[in-house]
Amino acid sequence: MRWPSTVFEDRRATVAELAERALAMDDAWDGFVAFLTGVCELQAADLGYNDLAARGAAVDGDRGYGLMREILERAQRSGDLRGDITLADLAFVLWGVAATVKATYTVAPGAWRRHLALALDGLRAVAARPLPAPPMSTAQTRAAMRTC
Question: Minimal CA–CA distance to 53: which of 145, 136, 121, 147?
Fold first, then answer.
């Protein structure tokens, strides 16, 4: 799915800015966390964007997708992020936060922060245990996110 060209163009630009700031940070893990937190803050502030994010709007060739890959690989090179994490895995972290935002925005608007913190702890290399299944391909991830 491609980003709607007009309605969410400002969110697309904001995500790119968040990514560039994350890549400029000295500490790769801090940049990774800042990026994911920033994206989730956008999701929590705008339910329309939250729905878009839940559908996996970034695609191969999209500038944001490339920046996300750079952030992920940089955090892996630093040794802080598990080496077996893929962009598909991050898509499902964001998808999970999107579902938390949608379910809790009226009763506990900040609940997504706890969800993200738990996910981030599991993404750390020091917490790594063998994963029970291989990562999904980009095509599989797109197909799954289209059905949500």
Answer: 145
Give the Cβ contact number of residue 30 at 10 Å.
14
- Write out the two tokens for 145: 């996110």
Q: Phi and psi of 64, rounded to 5°?
A: -60, -40
Q: Other C-beta atoms within 10 Å of 4: how many? A: 13
- What are the tens digits of pLDDT across the range 80-126? 999 999 998 998 898 899 999 999 999 999 999 999 999 999 999 99
Instruction: Record the tokens describing residue 111, joined without a space.
Output: 């609940």
Cα 84 from chain centroid? 16
pLDDT(144) > 80: no
What DSSP string runs through 73-124? HHHHHTTSB-TT--HHHHHHHHHHHHHHHHHHTTT-TTHHHHHHHHHHHHHB
CB 42 within 8 A of CB 15: yes
Q: For residue 69, what is the enclosing H or E element?
A: helix 63-77
Model pTM score = 0.86
Question: Distance (Å, rounded) from C-alpha 138 to C-alpha 100?
Answer: 23
